[in-house]
Recover the amino acids of this structure.
């Protein structure tokens, strides 16, 4: 049964954006919505995650869980999804400058 999905992307190749418009409506730059089957959704996600390169992509779609939706992410992002007792939470990554990373990597 088809369901509505939301896909947001940042800094992805133009050919990917064009390909998505065959299935979804780009309501604002980088935000796509549409009603597709689970098979089409999964195939679109395969294409997105394979082409995202240095960009970011987040897919949200209805699911039979406590929150009523599932998130999928691909690419370099400042946020991580975390499972907390069956709930999906979003956490910010701690930003470290390169010098701080080197200090943390030194043996004690």
């Amino acid at each position: 049964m088809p369901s509505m999905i939301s896909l947001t992307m940042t800094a992805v190749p133009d050919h990917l954006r064009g390909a998505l418009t065959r299935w979804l409506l780009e309501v604002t730059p980088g935000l796509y919505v549409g009603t597709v089957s689970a098979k089409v959704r999964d195939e679109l996600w395969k294409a997105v995650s394979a082409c995202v390169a240095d960009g970011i992509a987040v897919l949200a779609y209805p699911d039979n869980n406590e929150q009523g939706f599932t998130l999928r992410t691909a690419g370099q992002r400042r946020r991580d999804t975390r499972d907390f007792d069956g709930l999906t939470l979003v956490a910010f990554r701690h930003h470290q400058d390169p010098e701080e990373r080197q200090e943390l990597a030194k043996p004690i």
